[in-house]
Amino acid sequence: MTVLVTGGAGFLGHHLVKLLLEEGKEVVVFDNLWTGSAKNVRHFEQHLGFTFVHCDIRERLPDVGHVEQIYHLACPASPDRFEESPVEILETCFQGTKNIFDLGVKCGARVLIASTSETYGDPLTSPQSEQYRGNVNCFGPRSCYDEGKRIAESLAYAYHHKHGLQVRVARIFNAYGPHMQLHDGRAVPNFISSAMEGHSIVVYGDGNSTRCFQYALDCVEGLHRLMNSDHDLPVNIGSDVEMPIGLIADMVARVVAEKMGHADCVDVTFLPQREDDPTQRQPDIGLAKRVLGWAPKIELEEGLDRTVNWFLAEKVVASGSRRAVGGAITPGRL
Ligand SMILES: O=c1ccn([C@@H]2O[C@H](COP(=O)(O)OP(=O)(O)O[C@H]3OC[C@@H](O)[C@H](O)[C@H]3O)[C@@H](O)[C@H]2O)c(=O)[nH]1
User: Fold this and answer.
1) pTM confidence score
2) Residues with CB under 6 A from ligand 1
3) Residue owning the nearest CA to atom 2 of ligand 1
4) Active site residue 145
5) Which CATH code of 3.40.640.10, 3.40.50.720, 2.30.22.10, 3.20.140.10 fits the domain covering 2-175+215-238+283-299?
6) pLDDT (tens digit, 9 = 90+) per residue, 183-237?
7) Which family does it belong to (predicted)?
8) What is the 3-class SS of 34-57, one letter each residue?
9) What three-state secondary structure class fits 243?
């Protein structure tokens, strides 16, 4: 079976491509390396079943022959990028997704889209089940992503009704793990990079906003189960262990300090809450448990330990060989 993964050089893309190759699938990756990295796919290059195509899904897509399944992950996911490139993100969510759906119709492929907990906006109810319709500001600084992903969901069901496209919709809640960019902008890598570099950790707000963080391997296992299930309505994929961000900052500071042999943890600096930053978030994962038999397995302590180990190892490699990070990649097979 040939599987296409858009955004396969991204953080979650990396873990998903690895899982699919280990399963014996032929994997084609589409990525323009906007927020992904060549490093995230370079070690797949000797795999005969792997093909990398450098392309932008907003443009006319290259011919890749027949594919049976498409995981559509391509889109920046860090709130820092939402403020930098809102128009490009909207184009990716609409035109990019439309191009992928057209390819799905042409090939008769099933398409899974990476939707998001951001479709619930700043939720007024907790936990958030798939029935909750959300509280999204349609013109705020995060709206390109929130509304972009909402229109991607709408487009998925429009293609299903009009063209019979088989769609799967995963609403992914906060994920973290190895292969995120150190300066990605999201909380976990930001906290790790500040602690590693001895800078104060920045927490927006008073530290009481909550999130539930899932480890990358759990997340891609959930995507894989959803793709191969019969359930064609949106499903939350996330951890339901809710924690204040201030506590997560403290945990990261402690883990990094222990591993680097520092006696003291770094300080935490509090800055004003960012506009429209959700104050609480916790998925109801009852549906995923029921229809996919899925729930996250890796606890936050264990996941943070593995993630910090990975970032520290990357730092040693980078300082040892001074090799380029995220450099240009040649189109075609890696
Ligand atoms: O350096 C930082 C970064 C983030 N934060 C805070 O930590 C919380 C989590 O922030 P993140 O940037 O990791 O992620 P957010 O929850 O804001 O958005 C994410 O939600 C789920 C996704 O689908 C997306 O990846 C992204 O939109 C927010 O309250 C944010 O303000 C900090 O306090 N300091």
Assistant:
1) 0.95
2) 77, 79, 116-118, 145, 172, 174, 186-187, 190, 202-204, 209, 211, 245, 274, 277
3) 187
4) yes
5) 3.40.50.720
6) 999 999 999 999 999 999 999 999 999 999 999 999 999 999 999 999 999 999 9
7) Belongs to the NAD(P)-dependent epimerase/dehydratase family. UDP-glucuronic acid decarboxylase subfamily.
8) CCCCCHHHHCCCCCCCEEEEECCC
9) strand
